[in-house]
Write the structure tokens for this entry.
Amino acid sequence: MPDQHIVSAFDRDLESVQALVMKMGGLVEAAIVDASNALLNQDEELSAEVLKRDQAIDDLDELINEQCANVIALRAPAAVDLRVILSVMKISGNLERIGDYAKNMAKRNAVLVHMTQIEGARGALQRMAREVQLMLKDVLDAFIQRDVVSAQDVLERDRDVDQMYNALFREFLTFMMEDPRHITPCMHLHFIAKNTERMGDHVTSIAEQVIYVVSGSMPEEARPKATRYETE
């Protein structure tokens, strides 16, 4: 009977940390949506709100790591349970980084509203961010459902984000060559595009963790990446 009590307490611990990850994921999704909408609509007030809410994401990351460390110390999980705990910590770290990129998008929007407008750029960036947000939603669902097929699908969809980035990179170069006044705003827009592409990379890292939790090993095949037009 005492052993059953220990198992039940451990199950509750696992549920608790996973619930925190889902809460954190919801905040990060909202940050992506709001930051990209603020960019599209030149909404400085919404950008400021994104910046302010980033602290809640950071606080959750810290809390998740503390709780995971406590679970490892007190429960000594093994096999699949240990994989879940370790993956939760890594997923939390990826979510925190995605939140930082959304925050950076909001910061740059506050500068861009006072610069020369680049036709079509804001809408294209918003569509790219939307794709990343949908990938994040799907991969978090895959984590809860332990759905390897959905996680693999997210890995494949990262190629679309890369292609969006590459297309924007070429467009910004064209704008900068056509008119020197476009150089500064295009540099800011390029950084936003690059940060969004990086968000996609972190989402694929989460997808890899889903596969690891279920199978016990990381994906063997390299991620499908579209050609990049810059040095890393």
Observations:
- Residues 2-41 form the longest helix (40 residues).
- The mean pLDDT is 91.
